[in-house]
Amino acid sequence: MKNIKAVIFDFDGTLYDHKGAVRKLLKELKFSHKLLAGAERRVRSRLKGIYTGDRQSFDERFFYEFSRIVKKNPEELQDWYDSVYLEAMITSLKKNFKARANVNRLFTFLKEQEIKTAVYSDYSKTKERMEALNINTSTVTGIFNAEDLGGLKPAVQLLYKITEELKVKPEETLFIGDRSDTDGKGALAAGMNYIQVLTHKTKKNEETLTWVEICQLIQAHFLKNE
Fold this sequence. Notes:
CATH class of the largest domain: Alpha Beta
EC number: 3.1.3.18
Largest sheet: 5 strands, parallel
Shape: globular
Keywords: Hydrolase
Radius of gyration: 17 Å
Number of domains: 2
Strand content: 5-15%
CATH architecture of the largest domain: 3-Layer(aba) Sandwich
GO molecular function, one term: phosphoglycolate phosphatase activity
GO biological process, one term: DNA repair
Number of helices: 10
InterPro entries: HAD-like_hydrolase_sf, HAD-like_sf, HAD-SF_hydro_IA, HAD_sf
Strand order of the largest sheet: 3-2-1-4-5
Structural class: alpha/beta
């Protein structure tokens, strides 16, 4: 944790408790859309860790693979994803979830300590989904999603793009996430420091801290290094 100049936070499962998120999201969708949602998740699992270089190339690859499964036009699927699926995510977050305790206070604290911050999600419309949880996006240095960066977690190229945007080195960055197979794998491969938050999906052999412990650790560390 020495010489940390930036903290990257995963979104889903890290900044809020996402228990039951998929089930609650599906409640917002019509039956035919539920089937598309299931197929979308299968495509995402197949392409986990890909890096295509940019958003256009990612969309071409992702929706081509999606179309092969559901036998629909890629352009039609992309429109459904943007206008139906992601909007349902936002609606579900507003209805069913809230940010973890002191998220806004933590971002404000890091900003006051001149530590750069980023929120990083696999899915698009990260800013809108943060706002659905009443997270103050103005206190965050950068908001990113893997799709805009050209791939999916845990591709290290995506993290390098974020640190380049933040103007810090990977080794000067702390990544806080909830999944060792995506957040942890990518962060460690990129040379970052990594802390995993305890969730209902944490495996018994994984080293984690509770969200409260993470907040306390960060505050103690950066106050000590003033």
